[in-house]
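Incident log, structure service

09:12 report received: a user says their structure output differs between two submissions of the same chain.
09:20 pulled the input from the user's history:
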Amino acid sequence: MKSTDITIRDVSVSFEDYRYRTPIKFGGVALDRVTILNVWMEVETASGKVGKGFGSMPLGNVWAWPTRALTYDQTLTAMQTFAGTTAGLYSGCKLSGHPIDITHAIEPDLLTATVLNLSEPMPALAKLVVGSAFDAALHDAYGKLHGLNCYHTYGPDFLEHDLGHYLGKEFAGDRLHNYITPEPKARMPLYHLVGALDPMTPADVGKPVGDGLPEHLGEWIQRDGLTHLKIKLNGDDIAWDVERVVTVNGIAEAVQQKRSVTQWWYSLDFNERCQNVEYLLEFLRRLKDRTPAGYDRVQYVEQPTARDLKANPANRMHEAAKLKPVVIDESLLDLESLLMSREMGYTGVAFKACKGQTQTLLLAAAAQKFGLFRCVQDLTCVGASLIQSASIAAHIPGIAAIESNGRQYCPSANAEWDKRFPGVFTITDGTMNTALLNGPGIGAV
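09:34 re-ran on a clean worker, output below:
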C-alpha cells in the first residue's frame, strides 16, 4: 500500500432535468431534454485524511441504449435505478488504492449487474455511462485530497502498477503518465455540431428561438469563429447525406471568406446507421465529385456502421480507412473492442468521458502505442462533465480539437459555470481556453 491510497467512505447521488434549447437527433430519434446524474463521493487515506469529490454526466439513454422495445422513460428510469446499484458497488468496495485500481476492480461487477423487470437487458454502454459519473467523482476526490489536479496523480508516486497490470503483457513496463501531459494544452479548437435538424440558412429558421444565440449555421460560425464542424448524417439516404455536406461546405466557404479564414475542418458522424461500408465508400466518392475542397476538409469519419462488431464481421473498414481515418465510438467498450476494431480496419478511436475517466486514460495509452488516430467526443456534456471531457482532450497527446455541444443545445445547464471558466463555455475565436482546466481533482471547482 501507498500512503496516498484511499478507500471510499460515502457515496450519494442526485438528478437534474433540463430542456434543450432546440432538438438534437440521435440515431433517428429527435431529443429535446436531458437528465444529468450527479455523484458526490468521500474518500479517506489510512492516516485519516479525507477528500470529497464530485462527478456528473448526462445519462444519454437514447444514445447509450437504442431500443424499440422500451420507451425513453423506461430506459431513463432503468439507468437512474442502475445509478443506485452503482452507488452500492462503490460504497461497498473495501479496496484501498488509487482510483484507477478501485474502478478497475469494480467495473466487472458493474457490467454484470442487472436491473430487474425489463424486457431487454441494459447494454454495457449504458452501464458505463452511469458508472462514469462515479469514476469521475472518485478521481476528483483523490486529486482534491492531495491538493493536485488529477493529471498529476497518474505517475508512479501515486499509481503502483504499470499498464501491463491493466492491459496485458504487451504493455508491461509502460507507465500511464508517459501517455498523458500533466498540464493541459493552453487552447484547443472547438468542434461545433451541425445536427440533422439544425437550420442551415435564415430561410430554414421556421420559428426563431429568440434567446440571443445564433439561429442558423452561418451565424454560429461568425459568432464563435468556428474552424471545426461536426456534421450529423442519416446513413440511410446517400443523396441527402451528400447534399447536407455540400450545403454545409457552401455556407462555411461563404462565411470563412468574409472572415479571411483559409483552413477549416469537418468530421462526419453517421451514428452507425450505414448498413455497410459500401455506403460509406460511395458517399465519399460522390462527395469528392461534388466538392473536392469539401472532401479535403473531412478530418475523420465516426462509427459509420453498427456498434456490435462481433455481430457484423463483414463491416470491415480497410478500404474506407485508406481515404479518411475511420474511428470507433459506440463500439469502444474495452481493450478487446479496441483490438477487434484494428483487425476490422478502423484506424482511429473516439474517446468519451461518459465511458469513464479510468477506462478512457488506459485505452488512450493503448491507442497511442498502436499509432491510432485519436479524438475526444461529447455527449452534449454540460457543467462538470464538460470540464472533465475537455480536460481529457487537453491532456491526451494527439487530440486535435474539443467537441462541445452543450453550449448549443443546453446552455441553461452551463449558466452557473460560464463566469467561473471564461472561454470554456462561451467561445469567441473558435478555440476553448483549456489552460483553466488545471484546478484540484478533475478541475471543476
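09:41 both user submissions now match this output. Likely a transient worker issue. Closing.
09:42 reviewer note: The chain has a mean pLDDT of 97. The chain has two domains: 6-173, 187-436.
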